[in-house]
């Protein structure tokens, strides 16, 4: 089963080596197409004018910050239940990327809100729950930083990640459950998207491009994390190794 | 600055930035406090704008207090403090430099984060700048006053809460003048400079009193 | 804490403090180190610098290693080298060593750039000991210096201590084991009458 | 291309996103360089992995 094949870090690194160039190329291509479409193909909104173009990065970033947390949640289950050796590597390296996507979603939302709502920030359910997600990401990153032993840190962080996953449905349904300024979902709906194809297509292309970017960065960060653990293990061995060479000075003078 | 002082400053900065250090936890706590307040007082943006400077100041005070309990304790736990007492360097200066390093690692990030958090509280640019300026000159005073509490509670296992109780009364003047000068910048007729200069003076006084008091406390704590 | 305690130590001599557990060997060393205030009496170091108290002429090598796990081994040592003020004394010819040299001498040179967190207990102990070599101070106060050290390191420690004595330094050490030092004076601590032991008894 | 009265907001959001992505890429790159340097430093000291790099060995 492929899932367990990649439990071997060395094998995983080889897999990354093969896959990464293709993913990166595809990601760049999609970004080129998506950015072109969002500026030149997509029409301006009859109400919002050109500001609607912020949507093509805002919405993918918002999706991705939730998907990234879902990846971390799955990885946490992997750490606690299946004891997969790469699970906490995956969770740890996803956190900064997730925090960055959340930051992007917050910033673009804020810059979109100013011309539309007249303020950079309101404390409504959607915005607040995403801000809470941002704090969760930062908290998890800090937890990993404060604990020296990666195995222990991984387990602690996995527990926290699972508890924090409660926030995901709150973010998703906040626009339906509470009355907010934020507009309700228009793409991810059970009865199909409600927006015009000229807007939908650039959005989908950008969303796929963002997703690929997440996987590229995530694989690279996981590779770094594996190397970091390797360095740690080797350093421990280096410390316990005897003094190399005939250290004459180390002999006590009788 | 002489060599030993630089070495101490660098060491403390490195320790708080590296794995196990607490450099950015304070900012995160600051962010958490500011996020929680609108849940308590309600999301009314006008109200938040009015009490925004106060929220930021209280957040900064709590974040500073929270990070202070390890200021001397970590060094006491592994015997470093004993060696520092014997090193032949003026202990008051040692304390001052440790406070400076601690402020650079934990207080300065609060100041940098303040304008961003101001957006959440609907502050206008003028009051944002005013709050940031007052925090810049005020938070060193909080760290220096807090150092007194940190040295008094250095030998206690759970000194954190006691530290906060001891320090908060001493920190009240800083809070008063910090918030009032930030407010003065928003409401026109009140001069900004008067409370601001008092705040600066408080920081300078704390830079003298704090190290002397906590050095004395540390000497008593060694036996 | 102590009664009728008085001793004089001349250059190049080691004072070995013996006595039962809990008798106050460690407290005596901490008092000499200036970490415990004297209730009465005085400590004087005659050949030292006039403007510095006796304890600033001393290195204290106690039970705790004062090693920061987040710093590298070399960073740990270099900090103590620049932070501890060297002190001179008439007739003391000890020369400070370079940090790397001291680490090599103690057999942990290969760990210099590793975080100290990776060191074993014995290696941390040796790192702590290297502190005494990089700043010259005429008095070494050593509390159970051989604990957590293996046979080789113990022999090395003794040669370092003898070297310090030859250079005209003083050593005061509390120990349970026999130490093969060149010039030894022994101080044996004994329990006083229980009623006289504690200051608090005065309130009875 | 005319982005209307709110061009500043649009460009700022795209710019800040680009900046964030660049920071992420820089973090990943620099981290890799740092870890590889640490591995090389250790290899110079003669501390290497026991298992060869081909990955043919199976972790039991």
Automatic annotation (TrEMBL), chain A:
<feature type="transmembrane region" description="Helical">
    <location>
        <begin position="125"/>
        <end position="144"/>
    </location>
</feature>
<dbReference type="Pfam" id="PF01578">
    <property type="entry name" value="Cytochrom_C_asm"/>
</dbReference>
<feature type="transmembrane region" description="Helical">
    <location>
        <begin position="199"/>
        <end position="222"/>
    </location>
</feature>
<feature type="domain" description="Cytochrome c assembly protein">
    <location>
        <begin position="4"/>
        <end position="182"/>
    </location>
</feature>
<keyword id="KW-1133">Transmembrane helix</keyword>
<keyword id="KW-1003">Cell membrane</keyword>
<dbReference type="GO" id="GO:0017004">
    <property type="term" value="P:cytochrome complex assembly"/>
</dbReference>
<keyword id="KW-0472">Membrane</keyword>
<comment type="function">
    <text>Required for the export of heme to the periplasm for the biogenesis of c-type cytochromes.</text>
</comment>
<feature type="transmembrane region" description="Helical">
    <location>
        <begin position="156"/>
        <end position="179"/>
    </location>
</feature>
<dbReference type="GO" id="GO:0005886">
    <property type="term" value="C:plasma membrane"/>
</dbReference>
<dbReference type="InterPro" id="IPR045062">
    <property type="entry name" value="Cyt_c_biogenesis_CcsA/CcmC"/>
</dbReference>
<comment type="similarity">
    <text>Belongs to the CcmC/CycZ/HelC family.</text>
</comment>
<feature type="transmembrane region" description="Helical">
    <location>
        <begin position="94"/>
        <end position="113"/>
    </location>
</feature>
<keyword id="KW-0812">Transmembrane</keyword>
<feature type="transmembrane region" description="Helical">
    <location>
        <begin position="61"/>
        <end position="82"/>
    </location>
</feature>
<keyword id="KW-0997">Cell inner membrane</keyword>
<dbReference type="GO" id="GO:0015232">
    <property type="term" value="F:heme transmembrane transporter activity"/>
</dbReference>
<dbReference type="InterPro" id="IPR003557">
    <property type="entry name" value="Cyt_c_biogenesis_CcmC"/>
</dbReference>
<protein>
    <recommendedName>
        <fullName>Heme exporter protein C</fullName>
    </recommendedName>
</protein>
<keyword id="KW-0813">Transport</keyword>
<feature type="transmembrane region" description="Helical">
    <location>
        <begin position="12"/>
        <end position="41"/>
    </location>
</feature>
From TrEMBL, chain B:
<keyword id="KW-0201">Cytochrome c-type biogenesis</keyword>
<dbReference type="GO" id="GO:0005886">
    <property type="term" value="C:plasma membrane"/>
</dbReference>
<feature type="transmembrane region" description="Helical">
    <location>
        <begin position="47"/>
        <end position="72"/>
    </location>
</feature>
<feature type="transmembrane region" description="Helical">
    <location>
        <begin position="126"/>
        <end position="148"/>
    </location>
</feature>
<feature type="transmembrane region" description="Helical">
    <location>
        <begin position="160"/>
        <end position="180"/>
    </location>
</feature>
<dbReference type="GO" id="GO:1903607">
    <property type="term" value="P:cytochrome c biosynthetic process"/>
</dbReference>
<keyword id="KW-1133">Transmembrane helix</keyword>
<dbReference type="GO" id="GO:0017004">
    <property type="term" value="P:cytochrome complex assembly"/>
</dbReference>
<feature type="transmembrane region" description="Helical">
    <location>
        <begin position="93"/>
        <end position="120"/>
    </location>
</feature>
<feature type="transmembrane region" description="Helical">
    <location>
        <begin position="192"/>
        <end position="218"/>
    </location>
</feature>
<keyword id="KW-0813">Transport</keyword>
<keyword id="KW-0812">Transmembrane</keyword>
<comment type="similarity">
    <text>Belongs to the CcmB/CycW/HelB family.</text>
</comment>
<keyword id="KW-1003">Cell membrane</keyword>
<dbReference type="InterPro" id="IPR003544">
    <property type="entry name" value="Cyt_c_biogenesis_CcmB"/>
</dbReference>
<dbReference type="InterPro" id="IPR026031">
    <property type="entry name" value="Cyt_c_CcmB_bac"/>
</dbReference>
<keyword id="KW-0472">Membrane</keyword>
<feature type="transmembrane region" description="Helical">
    <location>
        <begin position="21"/>
        <end position="41"/>
    </location>
</feature>
<protein>
    <recommendedName>
        <fullName>Heme exporter protein B</fullName>
    </recommendedName>
</protein>
<comment type="function">
    <text>Required for the export of heme to the periplasm for the biogenesis of c-type cytochromes.</text>
</comment>
<dbReference type="Pfam" id="PF03379">
    <property type="entry name" value="CcmB"/>
</dbReference>
<dbReference type="GO" id="GO:0015232">
    <property type="term" value="F:heme transmembrane transporter activity"/>
</dbReference>
